[in-house]
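Slide 14.
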Amino acid sequence: MMRVFGWVCGVVLALVTAFWCVTATADLALSAGVYGTPGTYKVDTCVNTSNTRKNSNYDCYGDFTRDGGTAADAVYVHLKDTGHDYPDGTEFDARRGLEPHTIQRVGFWGIVGELWQVSVCVAVLGCLAYQAIKPRGASQRRESHSRQPSRRQRVADRMGYAVIVAIPVGILSWIAMAAEPTP
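Slide 15: predicted structure.
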């Protein structure tokens, strides 16, 4: 019974994480300039929408102007949960996604701001894949040194390597975000 419960929880967690991974990867691709309309976002004002004193949750309001466009072409955009209290009048390079209200900061800081999400998704999916693929009882039995590990064990080990790479990338991304200078 516990094994079935574990599989059901693992499948639900994998589906939620896979959805998060798809949206985070799309945001990362937008920040990297893979698609979208290039332009500039100019902050009119940012507001702390959090009711607590400990945490801040900034929503910013401003205009997105595509490259080569004029002030008359600007589109008013509300950015939710920006992570920063940008000073009024701050401008930064941005890209607008397929949906008009989807704006992402581009360049190094934009990529760093999205990279941690992809790293966490890869780490969680890698752990789940490792648990699902590894042979049962592999940690309990000792394999002789003359035998090669099974193909299944080698694939599970590769999932473990992905986790080992994803965790430091995510941590470094968080550190870089904390050290980001305010524009």
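Speaker note: The beta strands are 37-48, 58-66, 75-79, 91-96, 103-105.
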